[in-house]
């Protein structure tokens, strides 16, 4: 196969030198190298897992916790200090994504952690950090959760920390805004925080550390309270007034005559302990796990209590400690990574009966959750419990996105027990389909978790109170359904397609909720629609193709940074990365033109940037936790998505060659049993 550019111009018309994509053998070599690399990375149990690399805040929070707890391992702390300093920016601050500017919460947390660890405030690095923190508004500009951690150390007055009342867990479904209208991750973070908020277990620091120097106007109450909206009648002002009412009610709590507090506190404790079971810590994510450990101690659980020991162990498992540093993952991603790698390997030519793929599929099947978890409160649908989670164990919170990815993998690998695989697949498919939201899209964990009023409550400034449906997850489900032969006349697909069209941006792109950002969203939508055999030459889809080409870089790659979540003006801008280039390449492949210059340049970029061992190097963050608040670098992305892109291109080229030679590769498909009848709801 010889692939040569037909002209010397980029998508925006700028002149380009002639080039030639490497011969067919180079593409095959790149695919083979990538396959070999990934196969070597498989764990003996059959799964793959890459490290989730994040900012410095997790290590900073852990140092603060150890000082609150009064038990500091000095050697561990030395390593933690090294890690924090290694992530300091030249201007003195700390950011929340690679290449980004200093951010106030990360900077103050790092400064505090270093000060707690004994780093002198006159150290030049600390002086720079202080200057940056003050320039961004200092402690008063931190978010609610950060201020709560400061309050635990006596560094911020509880009076100005927005109240997280325990009683919220008592509000039933009968009320418009209730506990289960919050996102699953917010519920897991807020329940232990509500316990902490009740006890307010401030512990004075032994080394008398203060943060007075991080208040730009000095320590004054005018800078401590949350500012109201200038308009009088707004939801924010209503909730700020309600917060004052909560604080007044706390006086009655202290007097022991609050009518619901004891019951609410007991229910919060029971809810938290119940969700420890079958999980690697509460919700298996760092913030909830750390909050729950503090809550247990606030409740009076002794240090040697089994629940405390278990919580400490699960937190410790997230650490990567070396001779000189320690870093912490927010959680583990084995199910997600395993499903993606299995898809990539199979698409690239590894046969279904290959031992590595069979073992991975069997591991995934074993991870199916046959338990009716918290999702049932908002979605009491009459289907068998199923689904998969992101982590090793988290039975209360299976999610739609992981389930869709696992099903995409399982459909390719029959395993040695085809009947078991098929039954598992059908259960998962029925369960997933039951989560379509009323506007046609799918969200990550819950159904119709979109009541915007919750974003106005004072403690909602972590930008994660809701679990809205999004184009990327919806399109991944459409991709699965397309491969399974479900037609566009299926009622659920009709609604989903309408949602997808409504979500398209004016320039043709789609917002990516769970990956950075518009490149991710646009790729996934195009891939999903192509799987449904939709006519890709429609104007609205060609507009998406044109947008992808308009943001291709000079080097042939694509890249985008997390600042697009702050301002879409930055969309498509950022250093080229292997994972984002792979997404764009796969997006362009959906238009069935392997000779398209932009596509060939993208393939050339991936081949040229591959390392000799089959891996790719990538420093940028391409994963999204909470937009504008928390981002993740999935270390497996740089080595899995490029393989899928190369394989997709090779298969497209081979298919076009067959078509040109008069061959057809069509096949008949049968509607999956799970989709013949729409699921019944209670």
List the helices and strands and how they pair.
Layout: H1 24-41, E1 52-53, H2 57-69, H3 74-86, H4 104-116, H5 124-135, H6 144-152, H7 184-199, H8 235-254, H9 261-274, H10 286-298, H11 306-317, E2 319-321, E3 326-328, H12 334-347, H13 355-366, H14 400-410, H15 418-433, H16 471-483, H17 491-503, H18 518-531, H19 539-550, H20 578-589, H21 597-609, E4 623-626, E5 630-634, H22 637-660
Antiparallel strand pairs: 1-5, 2-3, 4-5
Short structural description:
The chain is mainly α and 682 residues long. The protein is 45% helix and 2% strand. α7 (184-199) packs across α9.
Kindly describe this structure.
45% of the residues lie in helices and 2% in strands. The chain contains 22 helices and 5 strands. Helix 12 (334-347) packs parallel to helix 22. The protein has a 3-stranded antiparallel beta sheet with strand order 1-5-4, with no helix packed on it. Strands 2-3 form a two-stranded antiparallel sheet. The chain is mainly alpha-helical and 682 residues long. It has helices at 24-41, 57-69, 74-86, 104-116, 124-135, 144-152, 184-199, 235-254, 261-274, 286-298, 306-317, 334-347, 355-366, 400-410, 418-433, 471-483, 491-503, 518-531, 539-550, 578-589, 597-609, 637-660, and strands at residues 52-53, 319-321, 326-328, 623-626, 630-634.
């Amino acid at each position: 196969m010889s692939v040569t550019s037909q002209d010397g111009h980029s998508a925006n018309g700028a002149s380009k030198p002639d080039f030639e994509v490497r011969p067919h053998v180079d593409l095959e070599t790149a695919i083979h190298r990538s396959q070999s690399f990934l196969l070597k990375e498989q764990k003996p149990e059959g799964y793959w897992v890459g490290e989730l690399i994040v900012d410095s805040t997790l290590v900073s929070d852990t140092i603060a916790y150890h000082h609150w707890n009064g038990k500091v391992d000095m050697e561990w702390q030395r390593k933690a200090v090294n890690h924090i300093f290694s992530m300091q920016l030249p201007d003195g601050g700390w950011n929340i994504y690679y290449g980004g500017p200093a951010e106030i919460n990360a900077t103050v947390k790092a400064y505090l952690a270093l000060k707690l660890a004994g780093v002198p405030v006159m150290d030049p690095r600390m002086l720079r950090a202080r200057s940056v923190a003050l320039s961004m508004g200092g402690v008063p500009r931190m978010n609610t959760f950060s201020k709560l951690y400061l309050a635990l150390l006596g560094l911020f007055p509880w009076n100005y920390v927005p109240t997280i009342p325990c009683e919220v867990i008592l509000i039933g479904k009968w009320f418009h805004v209730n506990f289960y209208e919050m996102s699953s991750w917010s519920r897991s973070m807020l329940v232990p925080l509500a316990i902490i908020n009740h006890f307010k277990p401030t512990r004075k620091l032994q080394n008398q550390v203060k943060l007075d120097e991080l208040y730009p106007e000095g320590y004054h109450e005018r800078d401590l309270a949350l500012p109201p909206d200038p308009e009088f009648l707004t939801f924010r002002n209503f909730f700020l007034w309600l917060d004052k009412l909560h604080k007044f009610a706390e006086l009655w709590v202290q007097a022991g005559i609050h009518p619901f507090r004891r019951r609410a506190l007991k229910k919060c404790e029971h809810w938290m302990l119940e969700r420890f079971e079958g999980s690697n810590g509460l919700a298996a994510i760092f913030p909830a796990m750390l909050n729950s450990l503090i809550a247990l101690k606030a409740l009076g659980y002794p240090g040697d209590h089994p629940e405390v020991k278990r919580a400490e162990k699960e937190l410790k498992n997230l650490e990567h400690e070396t001779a000189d540093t320690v870093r912490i993952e927010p959680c583990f991603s084995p199910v997600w990574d395993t499903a993606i790698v299995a898809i990539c390997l199979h698409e690239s030519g590894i046969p279904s009966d290959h031992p590595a793929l069979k073992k991975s599929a069997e591991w995934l099947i074993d991870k199916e959750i046959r338990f009716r978890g918290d999702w049932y409160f908002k979605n009491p649908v009459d289907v068998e419990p199923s689904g998969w989670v992101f982590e090793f164990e988290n039975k209360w919170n299976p999610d739609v996105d992981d389930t869709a990815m696992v099903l995409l993998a399982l459909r390719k690998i029959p395993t040695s027990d085809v009947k078991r695989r098929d039954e598992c697949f059908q259960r998962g498919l029925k369960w997933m389909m039951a989560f379509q939201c009323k506007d046609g899209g799918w969200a990550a964990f819950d159904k119709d978790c979109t009541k915007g009023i919750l974003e106005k409550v004072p403690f909602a400034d972590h930008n994660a109170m809701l679990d809205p449906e999004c184009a990327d997850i919806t399109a991944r489900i459409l991709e699965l359904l397309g491969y399974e032969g479900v037609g566009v006349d299926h009622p659920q697909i009709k609604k989903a397609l309408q949602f997808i069209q409504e979500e398209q941006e004016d320039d043709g792109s789609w917002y990516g909720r769970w990956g950075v950002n518009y490149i991710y969203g646009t790729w996934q939508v195009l891939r999903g629609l192509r799987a449904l055999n939709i006519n890709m030459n429609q104007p609205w889809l060609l507009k998406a193709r044109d947008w992808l080409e308009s943001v291709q870089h000079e080097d042939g790659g694509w890249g985008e940074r997390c600042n697009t979540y702050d301002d879409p003006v930055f969309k498509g801008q950022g250093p080229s990365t292997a994972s984002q280039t792979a997404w764009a390449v796969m997006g362009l492949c959906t238009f069935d033109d392997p000779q398209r210059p932009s596509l060939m340049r993208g393939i050339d970029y991936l081949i040229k940037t591959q390392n000799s061992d089959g891996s790719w190097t990538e420093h940028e963050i391409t994963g999204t936790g909470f937009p504008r608040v928390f981002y993740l670098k999935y270390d497996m992305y740089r080595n899995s998505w490029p393989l899928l892109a190369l394989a997709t291109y090779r298969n497209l080229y081979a298919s076009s060659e067959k078509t040109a030679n008069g061959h057809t590769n069509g096949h008949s498909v049968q509607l999956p049993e799970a989709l013949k009848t729409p699921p019944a709801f209670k």
